[in-house]
Amino acid sequence: MNMLSLHGTPYLIDPIAEEEIAKKIRELEERVGLLRRRGTLTQETIQHYYGIKRFEQVAESNAIEGSTLSVGETELAVLKGVTITGHDPAYIRDARALDAALQRLTVMAKEIEAPTDISQLHELHGLILGDRPGGGIFRKEPVRIKGSNHVPPKSWSKVMDQMEAWEKWSKDNIFLPAPARAIVLHAWLAHIHPFIDGNGRSARAITNLELIRAGYPPIIIKKKERDRYIQSLSESDLAGDLRSFFDLMIERMEGAFIGLEISAREKEGYSKLQEMIKRSQEQQLIIWETSLKLLVNTLEYFIREAIDPNGGTVIIKSFESSLDIEDYINLCEGKAVSKSWAFIINLSIPGLGNQVRLAYVGYRSQAMLSGLRNEKGPSVYWSKENPDGYPRWVTTETNAPFAVEITTKLGIGDEWYARKSDGTIDRLNTTALAKVIANDFIKMVVDNHR
Fold first, then answer.
1. Does a structural domain hold residue 212?
2. Which residues are CB-contacts of 26 (< 8 A; sequence separation ≥ 6)?
3. Where a domain ends, among 246, 265, 284?
4. 295, 409: one domain
C-alpha cells in the first residue's frame, strides 16, 4: 500500500506533494526512533510532558471555539472547581469536560492494537459535551460551519454513511504512519461535522489519540493559529486539498518534539528568578508583536496610497499572533521553532497581474546575528507560493520585497534591521521600512509583467 494512500477518502494528493509529505513523515518517524534510542522518549518523560501541557491542551483547544480562559484559569477551574470571575460559566464547564475527555484519551491510547472507530469517537464526544444534550449522538438535522462555504451532509443517514466510510478507512489503513492517520482522520471528521457541537474539539482529540497511541507526544493547535487552522481545513473541505493542513499539523508535531526535549531536561520546582525573567520576556514579546502590527498597518497604508489611483487592490491577512511566549523564549535562546505565520500580502494591479507573499517568523540567520552582536531573537522572512505545489509556501530570497530578513532589537520597537540579498544590513525606523517594502512590492508586480 502506498504510504499516503487516501483511497476511500474525499482527498487527493498529487505525486509531488505526496513524495514531500512522505519524506517529512519519515523524518518524524526517524526522530521518534532516535529519541527512544537516546532514552529521551521514555514513558516517564511523556507523562511529564503531558502533565505540564495538560491545561494548555484544554485552554488552547477551547480557545479556538471562543473560550476566554487562560491556561492558569483553566487549571483552577479543573482542579479547584472554582468560578472564574469575568468569564462565561459555560467556558468553565467546557474546560472541566474537555479535561475529562483528554484524561480518558490517554487510557484509550494504551490499547495500541485498536484502530480509532466510531465507538471511541462517541465516548470522547460524550465526555467533551459533559452534561449537555447530544453527547455522543450523531446529528439528525443540517448544520452550517461558521466562516465556511462547505455544506456538511444534511441528514442522519448521510452522516452515518460518511462516518462508516471514515471508520472503514481507519480500520483498513491501520498500518499507515500515525501522523498520516491523525491528519486524515482529523480533516475528514471536521468535513463530515457529525455532531451539533464539539466537532473541532473531537477532531483534535482524535488526532492526539492517534499520536499518543503510536508513542508520539500530543500536539496543541494554539489560538494564535486559529485563522490558519480554519483556512487549511476550508481548503480540504472545498477542493479536497490537504497540503496546507499537512503543513500545519506536521509543524505542530515537530514543535511537540522540541517541547518534549525541553521537558526531558527540565528540573521540577519553582524559581523566583526564572519567573522574573519570564515576565521581562513577556513584555519584550508584547513590544515585538506591537511593532510588527504597526509595520503591517503602515505597509498597507503606503501600498494603498500608491495603487488606489490605478484601481489596484491589496489584501493583507494578519494572523492573530505570530509567536507565543514559549516560541519567543526558544528563539531568544537560539533554538529552532516551527514557522509561525505573521501575515499574507496579496497585491493586484489591473493589467499587470498580482503578487502574493507570506511573511513568517523564525530564528535569526547567522548574518543577522553577526550584525546584532550575536543577540538572538525572532526575524521575519518571506515565502512565495510553490510552483511545484507542495509544500504550499517556500522561502524566497531572490523574490523578497526589499529585504530577505527583518527584525528589531529586543525591547526596541521602532528600530528595524533589514538584511538585503547582497548581505548588507540597513537600519530603518518603521515608516521608512514600510515605505521601501511597499515600493519594492509594487515594483515586483510591474517587473513580473514585463
1. yes
2. none
3. 265
4. yes
What's the rounded Cα separation, in Å, for the pair 359 and 362? 10
Choice between 240 and 273, residue whose per-residue pLDDT is larger: 240
Count of domains forming the chain: 2
Confirm whether 9 is domain-assigned.
no
Range of the domain at 315: 273-449
Using an 8 Å Cβ cutoff, are 406 and 415 in contact?
no
What are the grid coordinates assigned to 10, written together? 474525499
The closest alpha carbon to 190, from 246, 152, 240, 139, belongs to: 152
pTM for this prediction: 0.75
- Start-end of H helices in 2-69: 15-38, 43-64
Mind listing the pLDDT tens digit for each residue in 145-161?
877 788 899 999 999 99
- For residue 247, the domain's CATH number is 1.10.3290.10
Q: Which three cell numbers stand for residue 139?
A: 446529528
Closest by CA to 438, choosing from 294, 302, 296, 316, is 302
At 352-368, the pLDDT tens digits run: 999 999 999 999 999 99
Residue 141 lies in a domain: yes
3 found inside a domain = no
Single-letter amino acid, residue 360: Y
* Region for residue 114 given its phi and psi (left: phi exceeds 0; alpha: psi -120 to 50; beta: otherwise): beta
50, 85, 237 from 92: Cα distances, Å: 21, 10, 31
- Residue 350 is classified by DSSP as T
Clarify whether residues 248 and 286 are in a common domain.
Answer: no
Contacts 24+ apart (CB under 8 A), 122-129: 124/202, 124/205, 124/206, 124/209, 125/195, 125/198, 125/202, 127/97, 127/98, 127/100, 127/101, 128/97, 128/98, 128/101, 128/198, 128/201, 128/202, 128/205, 129/97, 129/197, 129/198
The residue among 265, 286, 312 that closes a domain is 265
Cα dihedral: 404, 409, 411, 416 (round 10): -50
